[in-house]
Write the structure tokens for this entry.
Amino acid sequence: MNRNTRWAMVAAFGAVYLFWGGTFLAIRYAVADLPPLLTIGLRCAGGAAVLFAWLALRGRLERASLAAWGTAAVAGALLFLACHAVMASVEQRVSSGETAVWMTAIPLWLVILDAVRARRRPALSVLLGLGLGAAGVLVLSAGDGMHPERATDHAALLACAFAWALGSLIGRHGARPVSAVQSTAMQLLTGAAFVLLGSALFEPWSGARLTVRSAGSMGFLIVCGTAIGLAAYTWLLRVTTPAAVGTFSFVNPVIALLLGWAVGDDHLGPRTVIATGLIVSAVLATQWKGLLGPRSAAPAAVTSPADLQMATPWIRLS
């Protein structure tokens, strides 16, 4: 691995860890003033516009096949309508840190779906991780401030995590363009169409108001959480192991909880800390073998200096 690639990977992991850890609080702030589906739809549309503009300016925009658009549409519907739009709706009632902890179910769903797809029994470490994850969910559900009437919100967040896992696998294994950035932009564009249509049909816009806080949150979500964060995530899936990329699942909730605590949106009670520890341990257990195993070689198509610049546009490579 050359020096440029190493620094690009460091920057990409940093973007996924920090920016995605902050998106939970940003969504929480945005949906206080804007309808949740409209928030996610604008986020996706803005992120797609930024990435497509970047590709066009670089002369790297390729013609995608109908099959690639089909993959993008299915993945975009799962990632942004079934996951992010529902999650944003739930965050009107659930704190940012709590939401982040529930979303650590994503890699647990990933290992289950991957085992079903490959028709093989999960490893013992995976089964241990699933047990720890279930224990963490039980502790979190019974924690301070967790009331029985919020069971529907908790179930919705688990379903969101499932939708993200399924959408990620479809986007990874389906037809797609060579460029990871364009693949991300296509998923964002199709996802925005679905979410904005849902918002127009089912969501009242009369109470929407753009404040300094919601505008700043939307700017962060579009540029940092979407354009940069998703491009980095998609590129990392191509150049390193899924287990290594999946480490975001146990870094993001820590960042989200700390940010929520810092602004008074979360209270770090003993049960929350215990539940977070159990769920983070569950994610670590399910990915332990992949984290220790040999890293697969990065595809040549995405490791040239030009592709590194496309994948990590916030770095200027020499």
Notes: The mean pLDDT is 80. The chain has one domain: 3-311. The CA atoms of residues 1 and 103 lie 32 Å apart. Residues 3-311 form one domain.
